[in-house]
Amino acid sequence: MKIAMLIKHFNFRNGSSRAVHEIASRLVRGGHEVHIFCNRRPAGYGEGAILRHVPMLLIGSWAKVISFDLGCAARIRQERFDIVHGHGNTVFQDVVTVRICRRANRIARGRSVSRWDPHLNLEGRQFRNPGLKRIIVLSDRVRADLSRYYGISSDRMTTIPNGVDADRFNPKWRPIYRDAVRRKIGLSEQDLGVLFIASGNFENRGLSNLLRAVRPPMSDRIRLVVAGGDRLGPYRARARELGIDKRVIFLPFTDRLEELHSAADGLVFPSYYDTFGNVPLEAMASGLPVIVTADCGVSELITNGHDGLILKHAEDLSGMTEALNFLEDPGLRDRLGREARLTAERYTWDSVAEKTLRVYTELQVERRTS
Fold this sequence. Notes:
It is a single chain. The protein has two domains: 2-163 and 348-369, Glycogen Phosphorylase B (Rossmann fold, 3-Layer(aba) Sandwich); 171-344, Rossmann fold. By secondary structure, the protein is of the alpha/beta class. The chain has helices at 15-29, 61-77, 102-108, 118-128, 140-150, 174-185, 207-213, 233-241, 257-263, 278-285, 317-326, 330-344, 349-369; strands at 2-6, 33-38, 50-53, 83-86, 95-98, 134-137, 157-159, 192-198, 222-228, 248-252, 266-269, 290-293, 309-311. Helix 1 (15-29) links the parallel strand 1 (2-6) and strand 2. It contains 13 helices and 13 strands. The mean pLDDT is 93. Helix 10 crosses helix 12. A seven-stranded parallel beta sheet has the order 3-2-1-4-5-6-7, sandwiched between helices. Strands 10-9-8-11-12-13 form a six-stranded parallel beta sheet, sandwiched between helices. It is 41% helix and 16% strand. 44% of the residues are buried.
């Protein structure tokens, strides 16, 4: 099967890129020909998939969105593909994986919903495309959002949660990296290191609320370690305003998350809205207890109090404080981490690739019989 995958930024700094890479590499190993159409690409990529550069205007949101979409459409028309699979930035495709319902996200955050927003405009056009035959969603949460806001029937959608590399993210790295990484980032033996990680958009991921939750009378042992790709300056200033700057360690984005996991004692991901959440699933695979909101899709995989802790919503500060205090109990922390690892092991990229290929095959059969 000859497959085109469309993704604007293929750079491994976000969950979308990692998912495309994991699925595409497995499809190639299965004998399929995969072309990834993108604007940004990692240097020296040699995983079997063929990278195809799509130029994009770099000034203004509308120009970026439209130029990438039209650039992909033009290139797809030039040759025959059995399946065209978009990953959120394009309109003209057979299958799309929806990693975020932008309309639901803006409403959840109390933001206006304007038809002049280029991303909302593209989202609406995407679902009105008559050539779109299948929609893959990462959680039942986004399935419900698409049904509510766009009237999409359930039979057009397939839920396929993301997978995790359970060898890369594994408790086995803890004795190897833990002490050295803790010394490097400034955690003492007595500190309880709690991670907050996000490739970007710290505000949507609830960092402002988390900073408020770690104010006194929070235990002095708890140290919040913030790592990611958003601007750190405003949050450093906020920590100083709250008088907690000595409780918070700010780190730049790192590709070596497994080492950071080994140094930590837990992870909190208090997002306003996330259709899935690779970050907490990777932490679970590393054997860390995680705290997430019910508005994060990965919460559908977690049993509260068994393999993780679930907050009612991103502004549940009392619940967040209570959950963080629970992590002081080493017995509870270890039990949650062990069970989290067992849960994460059930979600492999092999399974994700297999289910995605099943969607392609069903679509091919429908075409032949229609």
